[in-house]
Amino acid sequence: MLFRTIATSAIGVIALAVAGATMGPQWDPVALTDPLMMESSSTVIGGPVDATPVGTYEVTTRVVPVQLDGTVIEAQISTPVGAPAGLPGIVFVHGAGTGAYVQAFKTQAHALASAGVVTMVPNKRLDTYSNRHRDYVQMARDYERSVEVLRAVEEVDPDLVGVYGESEGAWIVPVMAADHPVLAFAALISAPVVPPREQAAFAADSYLRNTGVPQGVFRAIPRAVGMAFPGGGFEYADFEVTPYQQRMAQPTFVAYGTGDASMPTVQGAQQIITDLAVAGNDQVTVRYYADANHGIRVDGEISADFVRDLSRWIDGLPATATAAPQVAGDQPHQTFRAEPVPTPRWFGDGNTVLNTVLGACGAIVVGAGVWLCARLLRRRGTGFAVGLGRPLFCLGLGSVLTVAGLVWYLFAITKLALDYDQNPWVVQGGWIGVRLLGIATVVAGAVLVNRLDDVRGDPDRQAVQGVPAVASLALVSLGSVVLLVMLAYWGVFQLGI
């Protein structure tokens, strides 16, 4: 019996491993072989710049309304006190999540204003913005209303107003710049460049590598990111910013932190330079800041070099638009390219995946409930042959617990990855634990199969008696098999295949 159990279990694990490998795309990111070399380690904006240093002026702020289609938002304008008229201005475009002027871009807006640039931070419109729905073209139209308000400010030269987009905002700014050449300049900070789906896969890969997860976990990246998300929506995941960047004629300032693992920092700058060249635009200035993170922060503070360089660049336009060096700062490193994410062949619909898992769990629960009710009612002529009940129970419970363990593990490593943290007990130990639990479930299934085979070969014994027992065996077994196949799809039974 022991040998049969081991053999049947091995066959089951191998079959699941093969099924998991063939049911969906693998994760094989393409190495980036074209590094971007720095022309200088200094980020200082060169050329004939006679700029006003940060901190020259005191700053006064006021809040103004901005009329959008269907709503009104507030925006804070920061103005240098005592500066001459005809100043440049800049509108800040928020990244992902919520954005209010009382919290967002406070340091950047104040620093630029103290150097003679009138800044405007509008509240982000949230009534048309959610995790499931984001329309970057419409968001660009909303931010254009803020540009119109800033251009009308008395201290501002309307021909010198530009926009600043950070992270998600760097998908919105090119739409504004392409459709409104009246904008004087654009600043793209921590720009993703590629579509959101590709960006999410790239960031997941980078974060997981930093966390030190086992290689087998990476298979989940294309299978999770490549599918249509449950519940619909998320159309913006495939938004292409390249066509808009290829129509930008404005001088463009590009900045990345070399400590930002979430962005394709080398590929991003290369793509922006290439896209703007399509429009005949060579007015691109690229700067990399040592150890700065996604928000160009070092140790929690906005890089002073960054705000100095940006203010000098804005103040020196148009001369600084092509001032040498074009690319400078700390040497960035990007191991893999952000590339299109393949769509899973059989599980490309997130609703199908979710409903399949819930349906299988429901079948196991109903099957167990039917048997429990029959036992409580003491139905005669109902039961399992000796030795079948326990492995059936372990099969159903083990399948559900393994799914729960996998969900816990994925959430745990996601939190570690986002916190740039490492915990071998969770990362390595958790993965081993989930896989061992899955294998133990397969062993329970092997025991059940072998005992059913023994019973069928004995004319004096009956495997199940009564409708409740038949229903329980069928529901629990079917639900467990479905869950084991889904677990195989997400990599629990990988054998290096």
From TrEMBL:
Locate the transmembrane regions by residue number: 353-372, 392-411, 431-449, 470-492
The record lists the organism as Pengzhenrongella frigida
Checking PANTHER family in the record gives: ESTERASE ESTD (PTHR43265:SF1)
Q: Kindly indicate whether the keyword Ribosomal protein belongs to this entry.
A: no
Name any one GO molecular function.
carboxylic ester hydrolase activity
| Domain (Peptidase S9 prolyl oligopeptidase catalytic): residue spans on this chain | 105-315
Q: What is this protein called?
A: Alpha/beta hydrolase
Mind telling me which SUPFAM superfamilies this protein's record contains?
A: alpha/beta-Hydrolases (SSF53474)
Keywords attached to this Swiss-Prot or TrEMBL record, sorted alphabetically, are:
Hydrolase, Membrane, Transmembrane, Transmembrane helix
